[in-house]
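Issue 218. Parser rejects a valid record. Input:
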Amino acid sequence: MGPGSPLAPYLDRWNQLPRSRQVVLGAIGAATLVALYFIFMASNSPKMVVAYSGLAPEDSAAIADQLESDGVPYKIDGGGSAVSVPANQVAEVRIKLAAAGLPKGGSVGLEIFDKTNFGATDFVQQVNYRRGLEGELARSINTLNGVKASRVHIVIPEEAIFTADQKKASASVLLQLKPGAHLNEDQVRGITNLVTNSVEGLEQGGVTIIDETGHVLFDGATFDNPFSTGGTASQMGLQQQYEASLQQDVQSTLAKIVGQGRSAVTVRATLNFDKVTAIEDKFGAPDTAVPRSSTTSTETFNGSNLNVGNVPGTGTNGGTGGGTNTTANGNSTYSKTETTVNNEVNKTTSTTVKAPGSLQKLSVSVVLDESVTAAQEASITSAVAAAVGLDQVRGDTLSVTRLPFDQSAVQDLLPAASDGLGVYLSYLKLLLPLLAVILGFVLVMLLLRSLSKRQLTLPAPHQAPMLQAAAAFAALPAAEDIPALQPQVDPHEERVMRLADANPRAVADVVQTWMREEE
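Output the parser choked on:
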């Protein structure tokens, strides 16, 4: 560039700089250009927000293919489980993907039958139906609180010719819970009912539910067994609830009678969890029978000139005792009537199913403090027996005893009533820190107030000039008295102010005299 160029002064200044400074300035300039470039690119690129999260790998791949075909910029984060799109296109992208059936939830649902395949065999159709049913169940389970993902496996056996040879359906559910989530018994039971009611022929005994750690949440094979862990736990829970309810009722009643902490109640109940089915047949009385059919039979005979042989006996049979035959002629009449009535059987059949959980035996133990009187003990025994529904025929037992209670814990918490000085001293110990703080605050305030008064007081060496100024002011002609507006104002100060207004030069001379004396 020529000497007349506008950049010539700057170039001369640049050439005069040391080499090291030129390098530093060049690096700063390059870094500034790079930073400006990135800022420009970031301002032009759209803001990306997460549209979907927690996706299965196959759903992420399908969504990425759909967005790429639509020309929508996207970014995959979270190890392939999240897809981000421009913030101004989130709603539009979600609507388009929903119309395309995405995301599918990581499984194939019954939409597998949307496309008809005429060449599919029966086996392929059954497999597709099972896949679709598994996918639909997994999607339903994923909507529950605490469930992040799930997989369902269903086994549907083929139909057998004979009922005895027919196998039962089964299902297994694998749950992936959210961090910190835990499913209670009711939620697990709900998942079990959802699966059993969605698969034909599936019972609770064929369902198994586990979590991602392999912990069994529900095992239908053992739950139906009354001696299994699940059944026993439920029975124990019902028994404990019954015992706790009775114990709480009796304890609250005794607390109102003998006072708090003067009674102890223990209840033990034995529940019968056997399921009993009873069938009873009853027949009506004969006089209330209803005839169903009736049959009457009548026989009649009339005869004459009958020949009557010898009288049966040993003589006739043996040929002795008279061998001649006796013959007689006469008339005979015979009549017979039979009636048969068939009555309808009056029969009543009743079937009774007793639910498990009936009370089989009850034992109640009540311990009272020795301060309770014998009369109170007798009344309390009757009241407790009525409250728990005691039945001696059933074998229930009730024990009420009086024993001295240990009151050491209560005495340790309560201060001695006679030691009033000790109570006051304990309160005083609590108030001492507060009193010390208040006293220190008062002392500090008094000290500050004393210092402020000393600063306002004039020093002793200044008293002589003040006397001289007062004499000089006295020599001056007196001014007219002005009525005081504020009675609390010092009259000497007010007089000095009036003199300063009347003769400022004299006041200035006095002030200069004071300043020379201080030097």
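Fixed in the parser; the record now loads. DSSP finds 15 helices and 14 strands in the chain.
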